[in-house]
Amino acid sequence: MGAMKRMEVSKGAISSLLMDAYQKRNKIGMISFRKEEAELILPFTSSVELGEKLLRNLPTGGKTPLSKAFFNSYEAIKNEIRKNPNIIPIALFISDFKPNVAMKDDYIKEVFDICEKFAEDEITVILVDTEPKSFIKIGIGENLAKKYGFEYYKIDDLNVGDIVGIVNNLAIGGNIDR
């Protein structure tokens, strides 16, 4: 499956999750990460319109500041939990999991250290790996899943409905609020 097809499935899944969140009165936040930055581009909301507008203009490619993305996601979730301690947070990462930008020194160690925090706080994490099938495979996403018990899927094996179904199943019947 080519890069464009993988991106189409990724964006379709996010759009479907936004629609699902709107219908169930849940919230979704989105962090975009590429080049040197990882930024919260969609604060937790159930606004389908805002989310779809951001998705249309979401660029891809380039460097992968994965540790920043994991760190910013963790911080955003922790902030949301402080506001509403009754939520059941789920972090969904769609990436090739090939970090190459560090926050300080060692981008691989940073990713594992932050994932340790997700695991300690029992935050459900879903990793959807967009790394294309090839002879040379980095496999960081799969390693993270094995080490911390995260859900792990290859994008090539999923369609839009599968990703929404996985999130809903983990959200206890689709109801993210306790």
Automatic annotation (TrEMBL):
Provide the leader sequence positions: none
Q: Which organism is it from?
A: Methanococcus aeolicus (strain ATCC BAA-1280 / DSM 17508 / OCM 812 / Nankai-3)
This chain's protein is named Magnesium chelatase
List each copy of the VWFA domain by range: 5-97
User: Mind giving the lineage of the organism this protein is from?
Assistant: Archaea, Methanobacteriati, Methanobacteriota, Methanomada group, Methanococci
Extract the coiled-coil ranges from the record.
none
